[in-house]
Amino acid sequence: MSRTHKQAGSTQELTGWEVHPLTPDRWHDLEKLFGERGAYSGCWCMWWRVSGRQFFAQRGQQNKESFKQVVESGEVPGILGYAEDEPVGWCAIAPRDAHMRLREERVCIFKKVDNQPVWTITCFFVARACRHRGVMPRLLAGAIEYAASQGAKIIEGYPLDPQFKPVATNSAYTGILAVFQKAGFVEVLRRHEGRPIMRYFVGEEVRQHDEG
């Protein structure tokens, strides 16, 4: 058993942190992290990638198979976080157009802000034993770094604002507002009081520093 799981419930910061894109050779690590329930009740991170009807029709094993096909196609749908070689966290990040649900106009609170190309962060999942130990901020930092390495200029997220809605695991899967703010995201629009649309502008801090 790894040190990560020996410290279940601990608030001690994790050590040996690494982040890697989810590629086919890391699929078994994602399976291990998501467990039999597929992260959030059989979601397997397909909620944003298919229509609502299709999602519920294939919930569970079929969602798992669909997501595996995405990974095996060569597309990288997100990053895995590791502590001492143990998978402990997941962050879904990809170009906005990879997410069918975001392309549907009826998803009114998250529809396009403008026509600029953006990458979107749609989901976080942290192993139960490692929650409240700083995993989400590290995943977010890794997601920014990965998207920037792939040419992203704008990264978008839809975190929960706790002052309007209590934070629970199943409601905060898109992230927490304060975590995004500390990472350098700024609010650009809010169509629902508890769900701001946040953006990170790659290279902006560098330009501001140069100009100063």
How would you describe the overall organization of this protein?
By secondary structure, this protein is of the alpha+beta class. A 7-stranded mixed β-sheet has the order 1-2-3-4-5-7-6, with helices on both faces. It has helices at 3-6, 27-34, 38-42, 52-57, 61-72, 100-103, 135-149, 177-182, 204-211, and strands spanning 17-21, 78-83, 86-95, 119-126, 154-157, 186-189, 197-201. It has 9 helices and 7 strands, in the order αβααααββαβαβαββα. β6 (186-189) and β7 (197-201) form a beta hairpin.
Write the layout of secondary structure elements.
Layout (H helix, E strand, L loop, with lengths): L2 H4 L10 E5 L5 H8 L3 H5 L9 H6 L3 H12 L5 E6 L2 E10 L4 H4 L15 E8 L8 H15 L4 E4 L19 H6 L3 E4 L7 E5 L2 H8 L1
Parallel strand pairs: 4-5
Antiparallel strand pairs: 1-2, 2-3, 3-4, 5-7, 6-7
Shape descriptor reads globular
Please tell me the overall pLDDT. Answer: 87
Percentage of residues in DSSP E strands:
15-25%
Largest sheet: 7 strands, mixed
Radius of gyration over all CA atoms, rounded:
17 Å
By secondary-structure content and strand pairing, the structural class works out as alpha+beta
Helix/strand order, N-terminal first:
HEHHHHEEHEHEHEEH
Please report the number of helical segments.
Answer: 9
Count of extended strands? 7
Strand order of the largest sheet: 1-2-3-4-5-7-6
Stretches where pLDDT is under 50 for at least 5 consecutive residues are 1-11, 206-212
What proportion of the residues is helical, as a percent range?
25-40%
Q: Measure the end-to-end span.
A: 50 Å
